[in-house]
Amino acid sequence: MSNLTLPLDITSLHRAFEAGEWTPGAITRYYLDKIRANRLNAWLNVSEERALEQAARAERILSDSGGKVPLARFPLFGVPMGIKDNLAVQGEKLTCASRMLAEYIAPYSATVVERLESAGAITLGKLNLDEFAMGGSNENSAFGRSLHPTHPERVTGGSSGGSAAAVAGGECLAALGSDTGGSIRLPASYCGIFGIKPTYGRVSRYGLVAFASSLDQVGPMTRTLEDGTRILQVISGVDPRDATSLVMPAITRPQASPLQGLRVGIPAEFDGEGLSSDVRSSFQDLKERLTRAGATLIPCSLPHITHSIAVYYVLAMAEASSNLSRFDGVRFGNRAATAAGAESLEKFYAENRSLFGAEVKRRILLGTFSLSSGYADEYFLRAAKVRALIARDFDHAFQNLDCMLSPVSATAAFRAGEKSSAPLQMYLNDLYTVPANLAGIPALSLPWSRDSDLLPIGMQFMGPRGCDEKLLGIARSVEKLRNGGAS
Amino acid sequence: MSTKSTSRSDQPTPAADTRALVLRMAHLSRLSLSEQELESFSGQVGSILAYIEQLKVLDVAGVEPLLSPSSLMSEHAQAPREDRSIRPDAEATSRLLACAPDPRTDSFGVPPVL
Question: What number is the ipTM of this complex?
């Protein structure tokens, strides 16, 4: 193993390649060693052969270009990455942390994975998650939760818990996550890294195993905002294979936007009860520093947002029950050993579907309820109407704002097991993150401070729909502010 | 179930008999539940449904449901794809069949259930 400093972001990595301090092969082997130890249970599968081949190719390219990183052609040249295990990588296992798909090999790659690999990234392996991305603590993984890198008795957050743990724990340079109700932002906040959920439709969902199709969005989880932005530049942009992907250019790298005169909305509904004292003081500190930097804090109101969790759990579960109906043990996935003796087709399906874990079953049941005859109007349709009101609240408020600010979560990472017996308490933990998914707006989690136990606390910035670049520009200035620099 | 009611009190809530409800939903979604699962889900589903009841106090008359944020970005929507089927080649067919628990030459194997 090398005694050299480990490059912790993409720019330092490229500098280290050019200085000859690290080679793509050496850095890949360094991470593969860490992954094999799997100290945090963040990894469900290692794609060693693939990674080493990609690294060898990178070394040939580097030598052909005289040791200079060909950035224009390969913006993510030699960047060792982890992929949340609900995204397809051709020829590699795709388990969704479920017994249902424990042996499933993806027959094709997700568009985001193809784009990363074409941009030169190295795919190290697949990262742990709550089963089918359903959960906020990673405790719903059929293969055990991933551990918080600095506080192993605490949860990583979820559902992209493996992604957050691996990045924060130094087991890969960057990762992809997916966010349906906060699944990128919450674990990013709990583990102290950046997590970005783009506008719905700016990143392709092709090859992402569907949980709730109208809410799911893929995004980067990284140590620096710059790295997250660089990954977004590569993975965003229209994809004809995902009909909901928007005809908009790929996200570009914005300039830091001046904080002087910036209009930052503070939703009244997010500024009150329920915040832990540590989160409250962190939030207060950020607001004061923004004000000192010349930003204007503007109280705003999103009157229907208090119903977000109720709306979310009706709609997300309805979509999940529909999406997961395909897992019947016939065309893909595992077949339960008991299914062979089933006396009816119905029992055959039911035996196979017993491979789902408790949370997945619970959501299928609730989703089936809100879509079933006699209840669909009063539950599913009504929730979709309240969703429209929530989106309208945001659009109305953004007419006079550049962005909105809130905590990511009411508390820092909680202890494992603390909420597992009370699903509703776990659901309420998504209060601050769910509204952005309902409205389809971009939102990101920015690591702002640490509490008295040194647990990270993240703050959430939300922007108008389609204005991802603007939001990233604001976050760049806030990151500088945090690091003590002038904006 | 009434569809016009606006107050919580006069609405029979499905939370009243969640055990029967959970059994019915399990049947509809082809899930077999153990007695223990049935017990715990009934309680949990009851409290989740009670929480969701809050939506009933809102006046949503005349509001168009939002089924996907795509409809709010329609100026950036993709044109509908041409209605054309794509015939997979033999290689793609065998690659997809290989994902099945019991692949046969050109079909999915299932046990006899009649």
Answer: 0.93
